[in-house]
Amino acid sequence: MKCKITLSLICIFFLIIPSVYPKDATLKQIKQATAVLEAISGKDIAKYLKIKDVDLKGGSYIKNIKITHFDNPRISIKGDWKNNIVVEASNIGLGVTADWRVKKRVLFIKYQESGTLRASVSNVSFKVTLSTRTFSVAKCSESIGSFKVKLKGKLLAWIVKTFVNVDRLLKRKLKGQICKAISKEINKHSAKISRIIQG
């Protein structure tokens, strides 16, 4: 009697457990899902990057900030797709344009200058950790490298750098936007990745 009960329990165990815990993803499934993630991570997300205007004291500002291009990153996808999935992208370059105006008083002299700026951002990277249950973004970190800003104005545009740290202001405004944009794109395709992995 004991043997029959034990045998029945073993049979139930082997019938139920596989349906609760699916088999590991096959190499083919992982390759397909990896290709989807690579396509998303290498996508031009410039149109999703929204940088708010910078309003400064005395009527100075940096406005109409736009990301003009997003260079293709170097992508690395690590993990066993069972315990962890990590997407890393590096060597990203960005182009930025904006309008600016500076109003200052130096001793008894009022100074006003306006114009446009072009900036190039190098060594941008991000790291995304995906949930192995939902394949949506669980964690994201980013690093923004250096800004090179060129100002164009009516008179002495280079003087503006004395009054305003444009590089620092733009970097601060861009912070968090990369993760926000890439997370949105990955989450949009998480159901597709899930279907591939689960077969």
From TrEMBL:
Q: Which Gene3D superfamilies match?
A: Bactericidal permeability-increasing protein, domain 1
Query: Which positions make up the signal peptide?
Result: 1-22
- What domain of life does the UniProt record list for this protein's source? Eukaryota
Q: Which UniProt keywords apply?
A: Signal
Q: Which GO terms describe its cellular component?
A: extracellular space
The GO terms describing molecular function are: lipid binding
Entry's InterPro entries? Bactericidal_perm-incr_a/b_dom, BPI/LBP/Plunc, Lipid-bd_serum_glycop_N
The Lipid-binding serum glycoprotein N-terminal domain is annotated at 31-186
What's this protein's name?
A: Lipid-binding serum glycoprotein N-terminal domain-containing protein
